[in-house]
Amino acid sequence: MLELLDYAFMRNALIAALLIGAAAPQVGIFLVQRRLSLIGDGLGHVALAGVAIGLLTSSEPVLTALVTAVLAAVAIEVARSRGGPSSDLALALMFYGGIAAGVVLIGLSPQGTPANLTSYLFGSITATTTTDLYIFLALTVTVVATSILLRPWLFAVAQDEEYARASGLPVVRINLLLSILTAVTVVVSMRVVGLLLISALMIIPNASAQLLSRSFASATRIAVAFGLVSALGGVVTSFYAETPSGATIVLIALVVFCVAAAASAIQHRRDAAHARAERHDHEHGPDCGHTAIAHGDHMDYLHDGHRHAAHADHYDEHAAGGHTHEAGGHTHEHAGGAR
Amino acid sequence: MPPVTIIDLQDAAFGYAGTPIVSGATVSIAPGEVVAVLGPNGAGKSTLVKGLLGLTEHLSGRANVLDQPLEEVDRRRIGYVPQRHTLANSVRATVAEIVAIGRLPYRSWWRPWRRDAYADRQAIARALEVVGLGERAGADVSALSGGQQRRVLIARALAASPDVLIMDEPTAGVDHANQLILAGVLETLAARGTTMLIVTHELQALADVITRVLVVDEGTISWDGSPADFTTMTGAPLDGHHHGHSPEHRSTPGHLPTDTFDRGSSHA
């Protein structure tokens, strides 16, 4: 297995996969949250025009793609914040214009072979040069650091934009920042994943992580883990199976999604089996009059001789589940996800 | 120094894109008042209160909040409880994560190591205790009932330690049992001296908390007085001011909502 590390192009491809596997889901979760899952695709389309400009002018295609994608990201955010019935159409015009111009211009350029076009559209493990890698490293560090540092603000604005504005948060700047982070991620991903499938690595690991987590924080961590597994697994598989790396990465991400969906279905079946307390309108609390008993990490309330504990929007029966506890301050998970 | 007046409007106009929706609004609200804002849909209630939040344009007249011009006031001091649908989201988040957003205006991104993290956690825990959700801090918000989600939004506003709370329909679409719990939360807040401005169609549910009634109609404040006078004027015990809106908002005396159980849960 380690013989693939003997090839310089494979080392480059694996490092690039490591970078995008970690970065893409962290940006993507905010796109999922804002229901803009497809915006990355659009930016990928526009980035192709940037690649073409680079090939035509013999400059570094990654850099011209970066400039083009960031400009498009700013334009998208301006169009979105202006709103209006035509903003959706304006985005469509920009995206289709970008990919059409890209294909035509690459055809005109001296390096415009069909193989070259395919490698930009669908990704290729042989495409990442060492120069690319240094650029990717710098860009990824910037993207990851920014999204970690500003995560609470990105979360707040995506969660409830009106509330964020009312409490004086810089909503316009945060949205603009997310758009630019997306553009940079698109450019970092384009060599390995390809411009047509770029959004997949931002979105699919998050779709899988949503199935398995209850909090935003844990969903982000799980999505990064899935992103790394898919990107690295895709590059390795593509080496042995001689398949385009982008499509291989996306298929692996989809397999992860299916496994996560199955695991979540099993978990839900178990949850459905936990013992619910009888329905009551009363809400237990420190002053509710029912005796509170410390039970691991939470309180049980003694209600007509049985114990109620808060779970989701209802109460669970504890102790009725077949075990009783001595006071010992232990922490455990009840079967069925009861807390 | 505590503010002398919480809200002070003199011939104020609010609207969108330069067009006034509410105009000639004059009112002065003192600390500790709990004011219900009533009126038919489309009369301008939301435009008025959202104007105070800086969400609609202040077009003319005087609009002071917490003794300062609206445009200069520290927005953290004005707590906003929007309608519940703002909690609907496409990603998971826990109750504590949502309430933590209320603390965000106090944080600076360039100081991620900030030393007041402990104070933030305390404020979040206190806010959840006040609304009776201390036990559910780690729960996924989408698994909570409609009434519980309203209380999450109230806790988020409280976490910012505001001087005034502005609430948009806190009891709408909430079953009777949860309305009682919500009213209890508002009574707790009123007892602590929290000034509140509550847009509502369901005055009866909040009858014990309200100290003053404003009626907004046809783009201005058309009536201002005590709940008792409002009752005398309308000839019915506090039953809201609802001409022209949907039946589910009605809660006339003797006709309480029958859907005692809120099935807002998406817990599967």
Notes on the protein architecture:
The complex is a heterodimer of chains A (339) and B (268). With 339 residues, chain A is of the alpha+beta class. Chain A has two domains: 198 residues, Orthogonal Bundle (ABC transporter involved in vitamin B12 uptake, BtuC), CATH 1.10.3470; 47 residues, no CATH class. Chain A is built from twelve helices and four strands. The two termini of chain A are 44 Å apart. The C terminus of chain A is likely disordered. Chain B has a domain of 173 residues: 3-Layer(aba) Sandwich (Rossmann fold), CATH 3.40.50.300. In chain B, helix 5 links the parallel strand 7 and strand 8. In chain B, helix 3 runs antiparallel to helix 4 and helix 4 runs parallel beside helix 5. Chain B is α/β, with parallel strands linked by helices and 268 residues long. The C terminus of chain B is likely disordered. Helices cover 25% and strands 24% of the residues of chain B. Chain B is globular. In chain B, the strands form two sheets. A six-stranded mixed β-sheet of chain B has the order 6-7-8-3-9-10. In chain B, strands 2-1-4-5 form a four-stranded antiparallel β-sheet, with helices on one face. Chain B starts with 6 loop residues before the first strand and ends in a 34-residue tail after the last helix. The interface between A and B is large, with 44 and 51 residues.
